[in-house]
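lol forgot to send this yesterday, sorry. struct tokens for the thing we talked abt
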């Protein structure tokens, strides 16, 4: 855990944390911040569920990086996102700590940093490393726009290099929709543009936990029928139910696959649909969603897909609690 590496570095005398504010970039909900004085810590994140977690835990939270004496970067899986976070951290604090596991690429990030500045120290523990730097120019690592097939994306968002195979399969299977529609896990708006091609759609909520992806979606989708909801799709509660819910749900927490995420999206769709509403989703063929779909909907059928993905249409949500 990061706290143990920071504690080890500090207690050994290798690292002297200065007085003043500490900005911690992108710590996931399970992260251990106990080695840091809570009153000095601000959590910086663009992921809505994590911000909700840290808010409930009593931490100051923000999406925009504040000025700080120390910045700590919790390494994400994406190499481009990691570089962008280091650039952001270096711009807000004179001392930057970078912590990560080997399987998240900490060694390659450390090598790239060493090409620019000599770290003040490196601590290895629990299949990961913590290193810290002062100075160095990382401005060219800052996140910049990408334009893919007419869509704006950014480093670190899901499928930043273009629509993923699941979304393409779902887009191919979707008929013209109508009424009030929600896109759960809307990303940067690829499916939303497909949905809004139907003039019978009266309203579309793009529900997305990643604020960076949602910022891209705002630029990609300018249709006045669209609204943008920065929220955890699994707990999002609209003002009124939807006629249709569309989703390409995530199925990873970090590097580990978690079918529970998709099952939570299915439960959310059931909860926010009208009694005669319908749910369109795509999933990897190996993921076991059929039981959850059967509990949530009266009628479930596979209506398309590819060798790797299944497109499912479910209708008439059961009125269950939860």
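and heres what i got for the seq, position by position
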């Amino acid at each position: 855990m990061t706290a143990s590496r920071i504690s080890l570095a500090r207690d050994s005398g290798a690292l002297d944390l200065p007085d003043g504010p500490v900005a911690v970039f992108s710590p996931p909900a399970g992260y251990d911040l106990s080695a840091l004085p809570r009153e000095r810590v601000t959590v910086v994140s663009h992921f809505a569920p994590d911000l909700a977690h840290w808010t409930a835990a009593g931490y100051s939270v923000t999406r925009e990086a504040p000025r700080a004496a120390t910045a700590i970067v919790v390494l994400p899986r994406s190499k481009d996102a990691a570089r962008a976070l280091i650039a952001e951290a270096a711009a807000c604090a004179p001392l930057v700590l970078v912590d990560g596991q080997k399987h998240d690429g900490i060694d390659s990030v450390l090598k790239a940093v060493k090409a620019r500045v000599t770290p003040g120290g490196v601590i290895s523990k629990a299949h990961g490393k913590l290193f810290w730097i002062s100075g160095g120019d990382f401005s060219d690592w800052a996140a910049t726009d990408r334009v893919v097939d007419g869509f704006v994306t950014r480093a670190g968002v899901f499928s930043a290099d273009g629509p993923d195979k699941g979304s393409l399969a779902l887009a191919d299977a979707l008929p013209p929709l109508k009424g009030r529609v929600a896109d759960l896990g809307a990303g940067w708006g690829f499916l939303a543009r497909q949905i809004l091609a139907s003039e019978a759609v009266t309203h579309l909520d793009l529900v997305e936990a990643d604020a960076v992806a949602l910022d891209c979606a705002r630029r990609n989708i300018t249709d006045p029928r669209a609204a943008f909801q920065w929220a955890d799709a699994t707990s999002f509660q609209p003002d009124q139910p939807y006629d249709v819910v569309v989703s390409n749900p995530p199925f990873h927490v970090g590097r580990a696959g978690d079918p529970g995420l998709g099952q939570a999206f299915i439960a959310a769709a059931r909860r926010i649909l009208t009694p005669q509403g319908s749910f369109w989703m795509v999933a990897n063929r190996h993921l076991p969603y059929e039981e959850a779909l059967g509990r949530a909907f009266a009628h479930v059928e596979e209506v398309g897909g590819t060798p790797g993905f299944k497109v499912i249409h479910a209708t008439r949500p059961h009125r269950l609690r939860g």
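The longest helix spans residues 79-92. anyway ping me if u want another try
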